[in-house]
Amino acid sequence: MKHTISLPKRAVIFDLDGVLLNSRPNMERAWQDVQDSLSVTVSFEDYFKNIGRPFREILEILGLQDQSDEIEPIYSQSSKENFHLATIYPCVVESLHKIQDQRIKLGIVTSKDEERTNIILNQFPVKFSSIQTPNSNFRGKPAPDHLLVAIAELNVDPTDSLYVGDAEVDARAALRAGI
């Protein structure tokens, strides 16, 4: 017997890394390439503790802001070259289809840059009606800015929305946005 669950929401917005996508192996490889190329001694675990925040903010927290112009392109290029190390979690696609079947809008709010986000989302057989990535117009998580833009694009109220994230910055952003 097939059961359906009805969500009392009009939109579900997802973080990407750690929620829809297991990107930790990809991130670890990219960070290793940064370490090897620039003799960075900050561990991956210290880097990973801050995932969810904008990349340059993470580098600042780690005391690497002076090297951010060197680190960012190495990390980004390695991440793109090793995309195969990131995998969609089991049952994600099926779950997204079930949500869409209920006429609930889907969105993405991620700290991953636009280029890599688009590469990933092109692998999904569902359409996201709002995709928010870091930009200079809005503050990154835990600020609510990108979530507020997403719900405006989706034409829903915060109380009619659900945000699914995996980090404290996600929870704080959702609370601040009233989601």
How is this structure best summarized?
The protein has 179 residues and is of the alpha/beta class. The chain has helices at residues 24-38, 44-48, 55-61, 68-81, 92-101, 114-121, 145-154, 168-177, and strands at residues 11-14, 21-22, 87-88, 105-109, 130-132, 161-164. Helix 1 (24-38) crosses helix 4.
Characterization of this structure:
The chain has 179 residues and is of the alpha/beta class. 44% of the residues lie in helices and 11% in strands. It has eight helices and six strands. The chain has a four-stranded parallel β-sheet. The protein has a two-stranded antiparallel sheet with strand order 2-3. Helix 1 packs across helix 4. The longest helix is centred in the N-terminal third of the chain and has 15 residues, at 24-38. The chain is globular and about 50 Å long. The two termini are 33 Å apart. The model has no long low-confidence stretch (mean pLDDT 94).
Going across the biggest sheet, name each strand in turn.
5-4-1-6
Helix-residue proportion = 40-55%
Oligomer description:
single chain
End-to-end Cα distance: 33 Å
Structural class: alpha/beta
* Mean pLDDT across residues: 94
Please tally the β strands and state the result: 6
Work out the radius of gyration.
Answer: 17 Å
- Low-confidence parts lasting 5 or more residues at pLDDT below 50? none
Sheet with most strands: 4 strands, parallel
Give the count of helical stretches: 8
The helix/strand series, from N terminus to C terminus, equals: EEHHHHEHEHEHEH
Percentage beta strand: 5-15%
**What overall form do the CA principal axes indicate?**
globular
